[in-house]
Amino acid sequence: MAWPLLQVLLIAAATTAAASSSGTTPDGPAPWPEQFHAVLFTNLTNVSVASTGPPLRLHDLYYDWPRRRNLNLIRHQLSGDPLYDVEWNNGTTFYFDTATCRTLQVAVGVLPPGWLSGAAYLGRETTGGIDCHVWGKAGFIVYYEDALTRRPVRWNFLDVTGIQQFVMSFEVGVVLEDDDQWQAPAHCFLDDAANEDDDHIAVSNGITMDAARLFRNFAGAAAAY
Ligand SMILES: *[C@@H]1O[C@H](CO)[C@@H](O)[C@H](O)[C@H]1NC(C)=O
Ligand SMILES: *[C@@H]1O[C@H](CO)[C@@H](O)[C@H](O)[C@H]1NC(C)=O
Ligand SMILES: *[C@@H]1O[C@H](CO)[C@@H](O)[C@H](O)[C@H]1NC(C)=O
């Protein structure tokens, strides 16, 4: 089945469910807590795009708004070398593993806790057995929130990667204190020519396909509104 059609059906189903539900509808998704640790199961559902890398990943997301930093620790299935995606509020992102590093400069900082404000309500739907309110924002994301606890449950990116992320755990207030984990390694700071040689293709491809990168793009787009 074509994926956009599935999306349309999903939204239709959610809308029908909402119409028959008697529960109250919140004004919008709860803002993200200022600090949390989430474990996300990631499925890059458009495998044609994913053909250069495994489509299944585990993300450890450490969101730290007071310190204006965000860390995604990305483990591809059965890979022993996790990828780090460390974002700073000055727009610098370091994307590295033990051998390679990419530094990106974007025009925006870390996503603010209220980044979902203004999202459009799509209805109510059960996903992973959890009763959720569903919102969409800017043709970019469909976001599922636990109707009971208001914790995030899942989101789907509406781009060619078809990345879907499922929140497996969500620990409010948990901070990654170990500064060594945030520090980009020495091989991120080599001169340009050497860095170029060190780059391998998996990382440079991965960069355009990863959820962390999509959030970064979204922050850029949102800032332009
Ligand atoms: C990942 O997504 C693909 C495409 O939708 C699906 O066929 C597959 O079952 C999913 N895998 C898991 C482990 O959820
Ligand atoms: C942004 O901040 C990080 C962390 O402090 C630093 O490593 C990086 O060099 C800074 N980038 C710029 C462009 O100043
Ligand atoms: C999946 O990826 C291919 C490119 O590999 C793209 O042409 C297609 O539109 C994508 N599918 C969806 C549903 O976005």
From TrEMBL:
Q: Which UniProt keywords apply?
A: Signal
> Where in the sequence is the signal peptide annotated?
1-19
- The reply to whether Signal figures as a keyword in the UniProt entry is yes
| PANTHER family according to UniProt | EXPRESSED PROTEIN, OS07G0475000 PROTEIN
What protein name applies here?
Predicted protein
